[in-house]
Amino acid sequence: MMRSLLKSSGKWFFMLTMVSLLFTACSKDDDVVPDDETGTETPNPNGNVPYYKTQRVENFLAPVDDTQPTTPPPIVYFSLENKEEVAAEFKTTARWDISFASLYNSFIGSNNGKDEKNMGYGANGVGGILILKQPFEEVTSVPADAEFSTSDSYGTDALGAFGEGTGWYLYDFAGTIRGDGSEQKKHVAYAMPESRTLVVRTASGDYAKIKMISCYKDAFTPDLWFKDTPHMYFTFEYVLVPKGSTKFEIK
Questions:
Q1: How far apart are CA 116 and CA 124, in angstroms?
Q2: pLDDT score at 22
């Protein structure tokens, strides 16, 4: 009798073990699904930000001193690959991709180690930058490498006061270009995402297109921009694609 019970128990234990193993195997298979079937983020070997996904940065602070408006403030560095500020001590490294410098830290440049005029000169960054007179959504092709500048930076647009060619924002000195002429609408910087897009070759050779949205704290539309609105708090969106890409795809 005892031998029969032990034999029967052994069979049940064996069956339960097999069912458990089968269930576990099925669960693991269910968890592993190809990227193209789920839209899983495509890893970026150069940083934490995945390729082909729109990123948004809000209120990125580049401190300025309003009492000394013509004195360039300390340069601020940002990594598009990691979506974070990079300390100035790493200026001559490939850790950052764009710089905010010059007048009110409003001029955006790239990181290239071979150009003596570049902030990253002396390091191994291969970056470059250009600006297009197109809205972000319409920029679908990655420009040829020869079109990128390693020494230029882009800020004020010629459509506004003190403009220097094509830029990402219009400076309304008197408040009469975009503003209503009131005191609070004087000295306002108007980002132009409707007609300007920055394109960057990162320090590692990937590509990004950038939509500059605002330089005012918690204010993302022109109706909220006034002379006394806290600045420079940059809000922008961007998407990264790998080195060698010819298209800016968003998946």
A1: 13
A2: 35
